[in-house]
Amino acid sequence: MKPDPGHVEATALRDYVECVAELLRVEPAASWSECGSPSTAYIALAARYAGRFLMVQWTDGRGWCLAVEPDGAEAPAVLARWPEPVRPPPALVARRVHEALTEAASHAKGSTHEPDRR
SS3 of 51, please? Predict the structure, then answer.
């Protein structure tokens, strides 16, 4: 029996997102991805901005963004967006997120992010 062709894409996307999560020091269980139209991904962060948790989100049409977790039905408040390239290497995504978190921490009270000193 041949595997579903979408299975290969879904597995590749999951592996990609989990690699980004690992570089952000986030457990794979705190990440999610769905291969479809559009394909999407989400990584929950422990960092906070103005007292709210942050997340990293990806869609195949918009690339990555760092956003404040929404409360209820509100839309996520985007703090930084990286549309190009749409699917950059995981290390580049992690570096951009760390830089944005460091910048956000310097501008917001209630932030609990400590810059990555690797």
Answer: coil
pTM for the full predicted model = 0.84
Give tens-digit pLDDT for 44-80.
Answer: 999 988 889 999 999 999 999 999 999 888 899 999 9
- By three-state DSSP, how is residue 44 classified? strand
Report the DSSP pairing between strands 31-34 and 52-59: unpaired
Integer CA distances (angstroms), 96 to 20, 27, 72, in order: 11, 19, 27
Which amino acid belongs to residue 17? Answer: V
* CA–CA dist 33, 85 (Å, integer): 18
Distance (Å) of CA 19 to CA 67, 77, 88: 19, 24, 12
Q: Which phi and psi angles does 67 have, rounded to 5°?
A: -145, 160
Q: Please state, in angstroms and rounded to a whole number, the distance separating the CA atoms of residues 66 and 93.
A: 10
Read off φ and ψ for residue 99, nearest 5 degrees: -65, -45
